[in-house]
Amino acid sequence: MGSRYGQFCPVAKAMELLDERWTLLVIRELVCGSKHFNELRRGVPRMSPALLSKRLQRLIRAGVVERRPCGNRVDYVLTDAGRELRPIVDALGTWGTRWIGELGDEDLDPHLLLWDMHRHIDHTVVPGGRTVVRFVFPDAPASTREWWMVITPDEVDVCDSDPGYPVAVSVETTLRRLVEIWRGDVDWAAAIRAGEVVLHGPASIRRALPAWFTLSAYATVPRTGRATVRLP
Fold it and tell me: For the whole prediction, is pTM greater than 0.85?
């Protein structure tokens, strides 16, 4: 059970469910379209499978999430009550973008970054067939330095080991810089001109690559000019 505040206030009652660690991030993943347990795990890579299962069960009991058998797998989908949380998640993302600009090194997770990016591919401008993008983060530990994104007309997958397909283009940059580009803090073209992002591949694909990604849903949120809210 979550915290009991002992208040009739509806904000307090809502937070008795939502303020447990990871709960709103699980809801964020469901809002973003993840349905299967493994998809949810990839959206919260630092959350243990056991804790994810526990949070899902509590959300199911609360009537916020529904468990639906789907062939050999199970879908987790938001109920009407869960879908009403979408504007709350969006508002939190907008507020965090506008007022909290602070990013510590511990916040930079290549798995989460590429998992978020894979949901924002403009398939209308990516070459047909299978296109593989390799990402290299020279500043990351050896175990998380190289990643691959496999893009087909029907799906996009993120791999932390070489999938064995020819690479169309490689992106070499620091993890922090790509996070800043994805968040809308830094422009793709400016980072490339400054040599902070180096692309390897045919010139036509190097020119086209930035348009393949539509950036974070919060990339266009106006900033305050500087972060005014400091995390404790």
Answer: yes
pLDDT of residue 227: 61
User: 3-class DSSP state for residue 109?
Assistant: coil
Beta carbons of 98 and 223 less than 8 angstroms apart: yes
Under the banding of pLDDT at 50, 70 and 90, the label for residue 104 is confident
Average pLDDT for 201-225: 91
62's CB contacts (< 8 A; 6+ apart) are 17, 81
pLDDT digits (tens, 9 = 90+) for 40-67: 999 999 999 999 999 999 999 999 999 9
Token pair 């990871």: residue: 22
The span from the CA of 37 to the CA of 75, in Å, is: 8
The closest alpha carbon to 113, from 138, 91, 135, 90, belongs to 135
* Residue 222 burial (C-beta neighbours within 10 Å; 0-12, 13-18, 19+): exposed
Q: Quote the strand ranges of 123-168, DSSP E.
A: 131-136, 146-151, 156-159
Kindly list the structural domains of the chain, giving each domain's residue range(s) and its CATH number in brackets, ordered by start. Answer: 10-84 (1.10.10.10), 105-212 (3.30.1050.10)
Q: How many CA atoms lie within 13 A of 150 on its CB side?
A: 13
The DSSP element (H or E) to which 97 belongs, if any, is: helix 86-99
Strands (DSSP E) contained in 55-130 are: 65-70, 73-78
> In what helix (H) or strand (E) does residue 118 lie, and over which residues does it extend?
helix 110-118
Q: Does an H or E element contain 211, and which?
A: none
